[in-house]
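Need residues for this backbone.
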């Protein structure tokens, strides 16, 4: 999954996926540090994957599917509905992801949100 999101890594998607919010935000605003860091990340993905596997709680709500939904359909709020957050999902749908700010918030916090949802099961 990390490699698929790496294709869109110039917006930091793979870094957010692995729980690296600060560098993900830097990648988001600098196009992957002007594409150089984005290319270097291709070699760093296996280590980031092992670290993320230790940090986040697995469960019935799938991380990979949630990240695919956020990356490609975040403005529709489908990822939020998948997590059981129907109100905010519908709100995203009618406001284009709260004018993009909600999508950015979810890129920053989705792994923690998923861990919380999975702990409740």
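Answer:
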């Amino acid at each position: 999954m990390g490699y698929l999101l790496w294709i869109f890594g110039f917006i930091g998607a793979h870094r957010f996926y692995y729980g690296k919010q600060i560098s993900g935000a830097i990648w988001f605003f600098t196009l992957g540090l002007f594409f150089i860091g984005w290319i270097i990340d291709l070699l760093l993905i296996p280590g980031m994957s092992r670290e993320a596997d230790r940090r986040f709680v697995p469960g019935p709500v799938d991380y990979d599917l949630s990240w695919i939904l956020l990356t490609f359909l975040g403005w529709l709020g489908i990822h939020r509905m998948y997590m059981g957050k129907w109100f905010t999902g519908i709100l995203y749908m009618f406001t284009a992801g709260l004018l993009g700010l909600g999508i950015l918030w979810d890129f920053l916090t989705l792994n923690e949100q998923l861990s919380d949802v999975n702990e409740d099961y």
